[in-house]
Amino acid sequence: MISINSNAASSIAAYNLGNTNVNLQRSLNRLSSGLRINASVDDAGGLAVSMKMSASIRRTDATSANVGNAQSFLQTQDGVLKTADKVLSRMSELSALALDVTKSTNDTALYQTEFSVLAEQINGMLTEEFNGVSLFGGSTLTVRTSEDGASQTVGITAADLSTDVYDVISGLDISSTTGAAAAITNVTSAIEALATLRATNGSEQSRLTFAADMLSVNKTNLEAANSRIIDVDVATESASLARYNILQQAGTAMLSQANQSSQSVLRLLM
Fold first, then answer.
1. Does residue 216 carry a pLDDT above 60?
2. What is the pLDDT, as a whole number, of residue 56?
3. What CATH code is assigned to 44-230?
4. Full-prediction pTM beyond 0.90?
5. Residue ranges of domains in the chain
6. SS3 sequence, the chain?
């Protein structure tokens, strides 16, 4: 049957060409953006999963930064404790020197002067802070080490340098033999307490290091999973682009042929 009122072949060709153009544009968008999902219509479910993963990655980055700051807090604290160790070692040495029976009263008085000044140096360390947070408040600070903010935490100690160290060596007098002997005992006790504080600090730094490593691994895995959902496979999409280009050219040619077929009616009428 030959008809001039309708051209089914042309309609079908136009419909197929339209679909090809849509797919071609989608393929061009994917290759130009590097993303498989550029709009919700591309993959509604995949987009929803990717959005949640992207938010989780951002939270993991923030948590990693928080853990890094906690490590800096502990490193700063350990730096002060290391200096306190040097001060106590000198105070211990002065106490031993004051036991020398050949030293005069003036000599032991000078030792006492330095001893008192060093004790005040320890006292001055009690006010040290990290970004406004006291390094030696004696409390425990809770650090979140998981991106959900609740499931995993690490406690870091704001060491009690006052009770464990300063109070032990404060007010000592090494100007006499008896006082110097007592000072050796107290300073030794303070050094032992300081050693415990530094060991605690080191163990907390070690744990935070592993926590930071775990966050890095989790972020890497999340990024890989999100990439599989949202990133375009360039090789596959390039093949699709070539296919749609060919289909577009063929579809355009067939539409032209379908439109010309109705012209055969004119030859029948002439």
1. yes
2. 92
3. 1.20.1330.10
4. no
5. 8-34+232-261, 44-230
6. CCCCCCCHHHHHHHHHHHHHHHHHHHHHHHHHHCECCCCCCCCHHHHHHHHHHHHHHHHHHHHHHHHHHHHHHHHHHHHHHHHHHHHHHHHHHHHHHCCCCCCCHHHHHHHHHHHHHHHHHHHHHCCCEECCEECCCCCEEEEECCCCCCCCEEEEECCCHHHHHHHHHCCCCCCCHHHHHHHHHHHHHHHHHHHHHHHHHHHHHHHHHHHHHHHHHHHHHHHHHHHHHHECCHHHHHHHHHHHHHHHHHHHHHHHHHHHHCCHHHHHHC
